[in-house]
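User: Can you model how guanosine-5'-diphosphate sits in this protein?
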Amino acid sequence: MNIHEYQAKSLLRSYGAPVSDGRIVTRAEEAKTAAGELDGPVWVVKAQIHAGGRGKGSFKEPDAGEKGGVRLTKSVEEASDEARRMLGRTLVTHQTGPEGKQVGRVYIEDGSGISRELYLALLVDRQTSRISFVCSTEGGMDIEEVAASTPDRILSFSVDPVTGYQPFHGRRIAYALGLEGKQVKQCVALMGMLYRLFVEKDAEMVEINPLIVTDEGDLKCLDAKMGFDGNALYRQQEIASLRDESEEDAKELQASKYDLNYIALDGEIGCMVNGAGLAMATMDIIKLYGSAPANFLDVGGSATKEKVTEAFKIITSDKNVKGILVNIFGGIMRCDVIAEGVVAAVKEVGLEVPLVVRLEGTNVEKGKEIIKTSGLNVIAADDLADAADKVVKAVNG
Ligand code: GDP
Ligand code: MN
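Assistant: Here's the modeled complex, given as structure tokens:
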């Protein structure tokens, strides 16, 4: 789960990390008061969307192509005008895709004088299963670009969870970033705060880009992007409350309400499967037979008829879906429950694309019987390969 920059900065502040003072604005009328509470002489107006590259992004009509989801302004009036202009509009950046994201919140921040822009991130390194620091002198740029063109300017290392964060980790980063004097001490302290935040809040990713050296020679977090482990939200009430549902894929959001493991993809075959492993195998075999999955969906081992119905509705609501493959291996999950759910869902929402069903395992005969007597136009399949073959053929006519 991702959060907004202003929320991330508030978290940073609560850990003692240096950030600018700022105000969040959701309605244009609030902008002037909000900006007036800040000192100036520069006010930075920042569109809050769950995507980076806002500074170089551009708005859609009116004034399509107009630059800038991050604007520096010189007065309270100018700042509130900018906030008013941004609210409600769609901002397109290289991370949003061409459809862009609607700006529902704008952050107005006290401007900083910048002497250097640096890059810093913490993430979970899957190779070592440890938390890693990544830093670079090339801040403000896309780290992917830096990694491609000047990989020698990136330092990354992981932290042993047994010792946890140690001051030498921070000093290593400080020297790699060319920090000097008081900045080294600030860096050691800041990295410790970030590591603590990362662990305590079950973060998956914390990116500060840029981390700046101000005109006064102090470190400050000028931008902040944070992502958290969705499976840990049950014990992270504070983080969970920061969720902005308007930023999420509507189908994924609906699925999460029914506790379904659903991820939207861009293929044409909708999949309903039980078990993550079988779901992965199903996606693979669809590829092997020449098509592509429209989603990953694991209905889980304890799905009810209602859950299956909901899953089916989510799949059919996807306009890209040209065919559906239901692939169930009934272990704990019973085939008749799945069959009942499928039949109920089709009766409720209709079925305009071919449906291939492969059932195996517990109560398989009962499940097949339910589908056979339902009067639905279902293509029955015997095994995984047969099912994939049939659904791909049905879709390709
Ligand atoms: P992003 O484009 O979504 O990554 O948004 P950032 O918050 O990183 O802002 C983009 C760029 O705007 C930064 O790299 C800075 O160069 C500039 N910027 C942001 N805030 C300030 C500020 O307070 N003062 C100055 N001078 N520039 C800023
Ligand atoms: Mn940034």
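A couple of observations from the model: The mean pLDDT is 93. The chain has three domains: 21-110, 114-240, 250-395.
User: Helpful, thanks.
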